[in-house]
Design a protein that fits this description.
73 residues, alpha+beta, 23% strand, binds zinc ion
Amino acid sequence: MRNRVCHCGHRKGDPEIDEEPEYPTWGWILLSMFGMTPRPDHIVFRCLYCRASLGTSRDPRLLARRSEAKQAA
Ligand SMILES: [Zn+2]
Protein backbone atom coordinates (compact mmCIF):
# COMPACT_ATOMS: atom_id res chain seq x y z
CA MET A 1 0.00 0.00 0.00
CA ARG A 2 3.01 2.32 0.37
CA ASN A 3 4.41 4.45 -2.44
CA ARG A 4 1.30 4.05 -4.54
CA VAL A 5 1.35 5.93 -7.81
CA CYS A 6 -1.68 7.31 -9.62
CA HIS A 7 -2.57 6.76 -13.28
CA CYS A 8 -0.41 9.68 -14.42
CA GLY A 9 2.56 8.93 -12.20
CA HIS A 10 2.15 11.18 -9.18
CA ARG A 11 2.47 10.08 -5.60
CA LYS A 12 1.72 11.35 -2.11
CA GLY A 13 3.64 14.51 -1.33
CA ASP A 14 3.61 15.78 -4.91
CA PRO A 15 1.89 19.16 -5.43
CA GLU A 16 -0.43 17.40 -7.90
CA ILE A 17 -1.83 15.29 -5.08
CA ASP A 18 -4.53 17.18 -3.23
CA GLU A 19 -5.40 16.54 0.39
CA GLU A 20 -9.16 16.45 0.16
CA PRO A 21 -11.11 16.59 3.43
CA GLU A 22 -14.04 14.20 3.71
CA TYR A 23 -16.76 15.16 6.17
CA PRO A 24 -19.25 12.91 7.91
CA THR A 25 -22.91 13.49 7.04
CA TRP A 26 -23.51 15.89 9.94
CA GLY A 27 -20.45 17.81 8.82
CA TRP A 28 -22.00 18.52 5.44
CA ILE A 29 -25.18 19.71 7.17
CA LEU A 30 -23.20 22.10 9.37
CA LEU A 31 -21.22 23.29 6.40
CA SER A 32 -24.17 23.93 4.08
CA MET A 33 -26.80 25.15 6.56
CA PHE A 34 -24.76 27.08 9.11
CA GLY A 35 -21.54 27.84 7.28
CA MET A 36 -19.59 26.20 10.08
CA THR A 37 -16.40 24.30 9.44
CA PRO A 38 -16.57 20.84 10.95
CA ARG A 39 -13.46 18.80 11.58
CA PRO A 40 -13.01 16.45 8.61
CA ASP A 41 -13.56 12.78 9.27
CA HIS A 42 -10.53 11.88 7.23
CA ILE A 43 -8.31 13.13 4.42
CA VAL A 44 -8.28 11.60 0.94
CA PHE A 45 -5.12 11.94 -1.13
CA ARG A 46 -6.44 12.53 -4.62
CA CYS A 47 -4.67 13.38 -7.87
CA LEU A 48 -5.82 16.70 -9.35
CA TYR A 49 -5.52 15.33 -12.88
CA CYS A 50 -6.80 11.76 -12.98
CA ARG A 51 -8.79 11.93 -9.71
CA ALA A 52 -7.30 8.66 -8.55
CA SER A 53 -7.28 8.17 -4.80
CA LEU A 54 -3.94 7.26 -3.28
CA GLY A 55 -5.40 6.38 0.07
CA THR A 56 -6.80 8.08 3.13
CA SER A 57 -5.41 9.38 6.40
CA ARG A 58 -6.90 10.05 9.81
CA ASP A 59 -3.75 11.79 11.03
CA PRO A 60 -5.01 14.32 13.61
CA ARG A 61 -2.38 16.84 12.54
CA LEU A 62 -3.59 16.75 8.94
CA LEU A 63 -7.22 17.06 10.04
CA ALA A 64 -6.45 20.02 12.31
CA ARG A 65 -4.49 21.72 9.56
CA ARG A 66 -7.45 21.43 7.16
CA SER A 67 -9.98 22.88 9.61
CA GLU A 68 -7.65 25.73 10.59
CA ALA A 69 -7.00 26.58 6.96
CA LYS A 70 -10.72 26.73 6.26
CA GLN A 71 -11.40 29.01 9.21
CA ALA A 72 -8.58 31.39 8.32
CA ALA A 73 -9.82 31.82 4.75
ZN1 LIG B 1 -2.90 11.24 -11.56
